[in-house]
Amino acid sequence: MSDDLAERVEDVLAVDAAEFEAQANADAEVLKHELREGTFDNHQSIVGLEYEFYAVSDGRWSASEDDVHALMRVPRRLLGLMGFEKELGLHNAEMTTSPQPLNAHGLRAQESEVRARLDAALDCAAAEGMRLVSDGMWSIPPAGESASEYLTDSVTDGGVRLATNMSNSVRYHAMANGPTAPSSFTLEAPHVSLEADTVMPEALITSIQPHYQVPHAVDLPHFFNYALRIAGPLLALGVNSPFFPADLYDDDVTTAEILDDGWDEHRIAVFESVLNSGDHEKVMFPRDLDTVEDAVDRVVSDSTMVPMSVERGDRFDDAFATLRRKHGTYWRWVRPVFDGASRSSANARIEFRPIAGQPTVRDSVAFQAAFAGLMERLPRQDHPAIAIDWQTAEENFYTAMREGPHGDIYWLDADGNEVSGAELYEDLLVHARDGLRLAGCSKEEANYYLEPLRKRVETGVTPADWKRARVSDVLDDGADFETALRTMQREYVEHQSETLLEGEFADWF
After folding, report:
1. Model's pTM, two decimal places?
2. InterPro entries, from UniProt (predicted)?
3. Could you report the per-residue pLDDT of 351-365, keeping only the tens digit for each?
4. In a designed cystine with 102, which of 45, 91, 394, 447 is the match (CB 3.0 to 4.6 A)?
């Protein structure tokens, strides 16, 4: 295969789509056989975390005040030194933790690994005059560029469209060039509309993705359906992307309209609108599952954007490698995953995707712990929340996207009573704590992990609320919207530089 990116994309486009689909179907039968044989069963729950960042200027070498904390491209050699992985944009870096048993030692190991690797990565980045930021969406574009230019700039090489600021992942570039690719990819949100030749507008956003491995694969649907019920309430506590870069807003919009009509978690709208462009429906709140085989069949029936060839090696999951490749563009806000390098490490897990990057490591780990604790407790207790119908769970999710915890989110408590607001979160966090206790954490340890979320409930302040308040304060001092937005974003980065590794979001106010 050629080293030239355009030629590599052309190689992908030459793959026979019908053969790809046929192999994915055959792989699904292999996977379902292994599921029936119990290959994916484990004696304990396992947790892991994917953690995305973007890079900004640390300000030391900025030519002007406008360049301070502006977005920066991460040199590829630096990613290797950090031990991080590339993501969609050149400004991105991603960390994936080593899976650990869900117990007190495993959670400590997760938090310690994130801190240790991030601390080392921050040192590497500082040598280049940059800083990694944990956030839901960036809002200050690179120095000398607009956000629109950065997200839409592309070139055509031999008829292949290539995004200028996208990493050299063939899959990402191929999405804009296949036979089913739309003529353009559209970002839509209140008072924002952006068209691009590629999926690059999705690179506005960053997230954390906790994983929970179920002990018995046949039970995955029961856990999965509970995960759908908690998706709205947990998303509401984690909202962290109320603003776009200033130049992406419509020319005729007023500051008052931006503040009044904007949502708390625009990251959801970015991912859905960009990747659901054209005839594809790739990103959505998924339906309930009835059986574990249904989870496999959904991947098979999902529309294929990029039918890439797959080289099969000696890994256990290479027996269904084409299906795994197709799963790579099967985006759902809660997603089942089946893989494993060996038969003994084969696992069935739930990937929880609603949560934005958080202001501090401790806040991010709090969501990982809460999700794991709720997965440990709610299904085993047959908590009444499972009786919340799917449509209501979906409505909760998009209410949380728009209004955070201040919206009307429906919940059933342990006694089956309808509750909302503080009563909802009292029930949710108590069961998360009890789940962590079941997993072997002491009461003090469980409370430690959940404290950042409890403080958000007590104060009524989410990261999105903090951002809105700071923008409003600067506007009240007479600044225009762009100045207020940049001021807020710089303060966000500066607060984070003091608290990312050792503090928590509640220290900010």
Report:
1. 0.96
2. GCL_type2/YbdK_subfam (IPR050141), GCS2 (IPR006336), Gln_synth/guanido_kin_cat_dom (IPR014746), UCP012666 (IPR016602)
3. 999 999 999 999 999
4. 45
